[in-house]
Structure formats: C-alpha cells, structure tokens
C-alpha cells in the first residue's frame, strides 16, 4: 500500500505541472497568436518542474529509507549463514554424542 502511495505521488508530481503547462501554453498561444511555441515552451517548463519534483520525492524517500552499502549487507548475511552452519554442526555433534552413550 505504501508503494502505491509513492507511485500516486510520482504520478501527480509529473502530470500536474505538464498538464498545467499545456493549458497555460494553449491560453498563451490563443492570446498572443504564437501557436505552437507557447505550448511547446510551457510543456518544456512543466517537464522541468516535474523532474525537479520527482528528484525531491526520491531525495526525501532515500533520506527516510537509507540503504546500507551492499557489501555491508552481504557481510552480515554471510555472518548469519556461518552462525547457522555452526549451530547445526553443534546440534549434530551433540546428537551423535547422545547416541553413543
């Protein structure tokens, strides 16, 4: 559900500035008679604003959800794996000793 909210935010951050730019461009072209240049320029400006908005969302998301370097995560996983193996071997040896008694 959380990822759906993030995708919704990204969609709005992209769609709203571009749609607003297109609407303003059409109105500008109607008023100034500069078709299609007003439309093209305001859509480009909306795209830049949308990109900045997505960048800000990504920056905020990564600040809230830091990811450790993969090497640290790999080392930690390796240590857990080795500890599991040692524990299984210890249990197996204890079972073998019990059987021998």
Protein model, in words:
This protein has 101 residues and is mainly α. It has two domains: 1-66; 69-101. It is built from three helices and no strands. It has helices at 2-32, 37-64, 70-100. α1 runs antiparallel to α2. The model has no long low-confidence stretch (mean pLDDT 91).
Beta content = under 5%
Which ranges are low-confidence, i.e. pLDDT below 50, for 5 or more consecutive residues?
A: none
- Topology order in helix (H) and strand (E) letters: HHH
How many domains, in number, for the residues? 2
Instruction: Please count the helical segments.
Output: 3
The shape is rod-shaped
> Largest sheet, described in full?
none
**What distance separates the N and C termini?**
56 Å
How many beta strands in the DSSP annotation?
Answer: 0
Mean pLDDT: 91
| Derived structural class | mainly alpha
Helix content bin: over 70%
For the CA atoms, what is the radius of gyration? 29 Å
Features:
101 residues, 89% helix, rod-shaped
Set down the secondary structure blueprint.
Blueprint: H1 2-32, H2 37-64, H3 70-100
Helix pairs in contact: 1-2
In short:
The chain is mostly helical and 101 residues long. The chain is built from 3 helices and no strands.
């Amino acid at each position: 559900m959380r990822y759906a909210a993030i995708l919704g935010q990204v969609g709005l951050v992209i769609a709203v500035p571009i749609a607003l730019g297109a609407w303003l461009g059409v109105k500008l072209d109607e008023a100034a008679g500069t078709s299609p240049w007003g439309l093209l320029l305001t859509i480009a400006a909306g795209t830049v604003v949308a990109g900045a908005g997505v960048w800000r969302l990504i920056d905020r998301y990564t600040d809230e959800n830091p990811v450790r370097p993969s090497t640290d995560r790999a080392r930690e996983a390796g240590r857990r794996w080795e500890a599991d193996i040692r524990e299984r071997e210890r249990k197996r040896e204890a079972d073998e000793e019990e059987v021998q008694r």
